[in-house]
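Reader question, answered in our methods column.
A reader sent in the components of a multi-part assembly and asked whether the whole thing could be modeled at once rather than chain by chain. We filled in our standard form and ran it. Here is what they sent:
COMPLEX SIZE: three components
ENTRIES:
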Amino acid sequence: MKRKRSFSLFLSALLSAALLITACTGQQANTGDPQNAKNDSEQIVLKMGYYSDPPTQKKMEELLAKFMEKHPNIKITTETGPHAQFFQKLNTQIAGGNAPDLWLSDGVKVFEFAERGAVKDLRELIEKDLSKEEYYGMDANKGPGGEVWGVPQGIQIGVLYYNKALFDKAGLKYPDANWTWDQVKEAAELMTIDASGKNAKDPSFDPNKVSEYGFTIFSSPVGVSRGWFPLMKTFGGGVLDSSLQKAVLDTPENKQAIEWMVDGMKRGIFPDPVDLQSFQDPFKPFLSGVSGMQIDIYAARVKMREAGLNFDVAPIPAGPGGKRFAPSIVNSWVISKTADEKKTQAAWEWIKYWATDDEAQREWASLGEAIPVKKKVAEEVLTSDTSLNAKVFLDSMEFAGSLDANAVFGEWRKAFDESMFPAFSGEESVEQGLKKANEAVQKVLDGFYKK
Amino acid sequence: MNQNTQLTGEWKTDERPVPKPRKRKRLDSEGRWGILLISPYLIHLIVFVAFTSIASLYISFTDYDMLNPPEWTGLANYSKMIDDPLFWKALKNTLYFTILLVPIKTALALVLAVALNQKLKGLKLYRIAHFIPVISSWTVIAYVADSIFNPRFGWANSLLVSLGLEPKNWLADEQLVIPVLVAVAIWKGVGYMMVLFLAGLQNVPGDLYEAAEIDGAGPLQKFWRITVPLISGTTFLVLILSTISSFQSFEQIYVMTAGAVDGVAGGPNNASLVLMLHLYREGFTFFHMGYASAIAWVLFLILFVFTFMQMRLQKRWVHYD
Amino acid sequence: MSIRKILAYAAIGISSAIMFIPFLTALFNSLKTVGQFNKYPPELFPDPIKWSNYSEVWELANFSTYTLNSLTVSVLSILGAILSSSMVAYAFARLQFPFRDTLFMIVLGTMMIPGVVTIIPQFIIFKQLGMLDTLMPLWVLEWLGQPFGIFLMRQAFLGIPREYEEAAKIDGCNPFQIYWRVALPMCKPSLATLAIFTFMAKWNEILAPVIYITTREKYTLPVGILSLKGQWTGGNDQYLVAGALISLIPILIVFLIAEKYFVEGARSSGLK
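And here is the structure of the entire assembly that came back:
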């Protein structure tokens, strides 16, 4: 009898502990919620989401502190996470009714949120407070109806990186702003070397035993910013028309561009997907100094420097018709649809501070990750960088364009990759591949826009 | 009530069915104790499992992009699945992966556990060695796997070439990618199952082996006649767990097929696309959470049927005291 | 030493080497400089040996804080799993109660629903409970009986001879006392297994902490390591490997402690 009682005591203790745990924390969180802080009734509390690594987080917190000093009526609390998982977290938060009031969006994801109605149109606020000519990337988040879904936080733009040491070794002139794709291929042939030291012009060159490549151009999904996409654009082609709702892949321009790529891969002067496999990381051929050239974005400098490469940059070459294009990714601040008027205003103050404040712009630029949004500061920062021809990045802004990012960017990119795989690996003609890709991409677009 | 006939190795199961008439009456003392002891799980069930599974089942009948409320679409997601070639490819790949992985890993784990359950010098060291891949993250495992299966510099191709054979592209080869992934999964996972078997082996009474030795049984006979039947409860556990985990393989394939770099894993040409990869991508990358949930429930159904059959079959081959 | 014994040693030695030696590749990689890490063709041995990768990653990733968080989560999880899962499992293994077999199928069934599709509803529950941005969502379910633990311990309880329990019953023990005093001590090897695996799962978990934790100071170790990689920069691979290797040590310690329980049968079973 006694034993039985002790046991039921134990059980009820266990149960009440379980209930207590849940109840306690419920209360804790409530009192901890800054919204209920009554001591400063005027203060607006904002929840801001952003992805970060240790240095970017440190810098962001510093800037937030400075901002809050200037705006004592606004308190910004932050929610951060690693980039790799941030958007999964964000989706969960939005779905769970716990969305941040404003967040930092990956450039290619702005439309994914915007066209699903998760963020606000900032057109009026921008027109009121920011003069468009002073900033880069202001058109990047413009919807077909004139809406503007976000304000640039930092700019990435694609250029042609080249390895000076390999150019010197082959006795070649460095690429410049006047280069064409034919010159790229010509130089690549001379720089590609097989195991016995012969270059690709040599008749006895062995394309299966290449030890140094001329040019890395990606056929995989990363090629949307560093491979097939900018190439197609300079050839006069592209993926979507200006409405971003219609696929225009099945064109002679695109065919010409992709055939140019496939030819290079076949001859061994560009690494093909299997070659890239032996590098573990597709960026490694260039990083390890065994690829003469590669298209990459502004941020790529950082890793190349860490790897001790001797490199410089040139604009992405013009296409056969002289058309120019530089892929650009504009990470942006967006404001949640769920933010009320007061919070929207407060969030806008932060965005304004970010874009207009020279010091904030300089501070963020000191991380070396992105080109500052404010043109004046960008020029100042980039011209002070003498380690490479940094002006190339600014010059390329003139022909910068988006990656045809829309609400289904991730999905159409996958559809393209899937349809084009046989063509890139030479199992199917480029024409067939593009035809299939066009259908597949259109199907993805219709799945969203024709619903 | 349980006839214990240890020495002959015949064991009765404890799968006593609940007597029907008892259900109607007031709970007896044993029933009350049973309910009390499982009460933590009942809380778990009511507070968490019930809501999460009903919610995700409901979502599987809707169009749900996570940013807007779900819209009821009936069986649309399920009929989409039937027409989705990638779903079928993923299902095929998942089955292939599982059928290759589970039996080999289980058998190997049992042999290893028996081998490492002896009195050996340096036993601890051997056990640690076998456990190290288990605790290593997939990032580390991927590096190690690359040193073996790299098409250019890997040991595997060096070996093939030295034997005068053609080198292979391994993870970049549509035919080989799953076998290579299975090999790596065995290497990483065998220690996990070995530990389960080791724990199971501790329950096998030593006098059985002594008795068998007196009867003149050799090591192989002892293994088949004593170890295998006595450890069958653990084998059942291991089989179910490895089937579930191999059906839900995600991280390995994501990391090893360049998903971390490209954002698109499962290559080359979807040759290693598995169900979890497909549903994760559909759900969180393409905003089709309704469709992803439908795939998840089909996956659940397959596993459930498999496990249910195993539960039925176990009465034939699993021996409990 | 008999030939058979020599053969056994040889087989186990080779198998251990296959398991262990590739692991050295990771160790070597963690000691390389950025330049050497990127070298093509790859080199096996680090030259020069850069030990400071370890101290750098420790500083960079705020390891001491994250380790403490991970330890809190893992230790609370182990305690919860051992106490609750074994108790629930004992009822499933030995007691008769209505819907027992159905409930057990539900236990197994919950393991079969992919976690990614229940993340959102689970997030909503934890939000209602006010547990967002605390460590609680990471361990609290372990105290309410986890399917893996229940399954593992149920199989263990089914495997032990019934006589001892029958004897205790005759002595007047109630089922809880039988479970606590008689059955549980007999299943120490399985409890040790449960402890290792719970620790490992919690120590390595990434998704749940990413979803529930929003303050960097509350990150767990794997999230800390993961967050070394920014969108474009940071997260040099040798740091990631070094970080991963550091985070192995606690699991190894737990394994060494638990492994002691795997020697009882060593005398009697096996090849000899």
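What stands out: The radius of gyration of chain C is 23 Å. Chain C touches chain A through 49 residues (CB under 8 Å).
Send us your own complexes using the same form.
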